[in-house]
Design a protein that fits this description.
Layout (H helix, E strand, L loop, with lengths): L2 E4 L4 E4 L5 E7 L3 E7 L4 E7 L8 H6 L5 H16 L6 E7 L12 H15 L6 E4 L5 E6 L5 E4 L6 E2 L1
Parallel strand pairs: 1-3, 6-7
Antiparallel strand pairs: 2-5, 3-8, 4-5, 4-6, 8-9, 9-10
């Protein structure tokens, strides 16, 4: 299975031995990574903004761009592959940095983290681990075989959550 690379506002589901989902350069964006241990299925969405109500037209075209529509569309596509039962899902979140350290005026990273956490809690799917906040850009991947989330950032060695 080839690697699937996701851009801003994109989502993907992968269910094949050796499969990998990856997204590059998360700044204030957040990657929501979901792993089904039994079915060996992974999903990821790369969200950029908390609420689709700020741009309903964009949400229709690119639902993964917003937390509320992005997590929903990811869950719908995961259900097509593994069924609707949420048992056995492991959720990890990454990103939400404040890469524009000079100003906290909008603090999009913090708002994204709050929106993602609230959405997941409402669904009864709290994150089991996270690597969020700070001021670094992150590249994130999740492996189908293990559910391991691997992160890297310029000037740092790779790490996992």
């Amino acid at each position: 299975m080839a690697d699937m690379v996701l851009g801003v506002g994109e989502f993907g589901v992968c269910a094949g031995t050796g499969g990998l989902l990856k997204t590059f350069a998360l700044g204030s964006c957040v990657a929501v990574c979901i792993y089904d241990v039994r079915a060996k299925v992974v999903g990821m969405v790369h969200v950029a903004l908390p609420h689709s109500s700020t741009n309903l037209a964009r949400a229709k075209v690119l639902p993964g761009y917003f937390v509320d529509t992005g997590i929903q569309i990811l869950m719908e596509h995961l259900a097509k592959v593994r069924g609707p039962d949420r048992k056995g899902l492991i959720v990890k979140i990454c990103g939400g940095a404040n890469v524009m350290r000079a100003t906290n005026v909008f603090d999009i990273g913090k708002r994204n983290i709050q929106a993602v956490t609230q959405d997941l809690m409402r669904r009864g799917m709290p994150p089991t681990s996270s690597d969020i906040g700070g001021s670094i850009s992150r590249t994130v991947s999740i492996e189908v075989d293990t559910g391991c989330v691997v992160l890297n950032s310029p000037g740092r060695s790779k790490w996992t959550i």
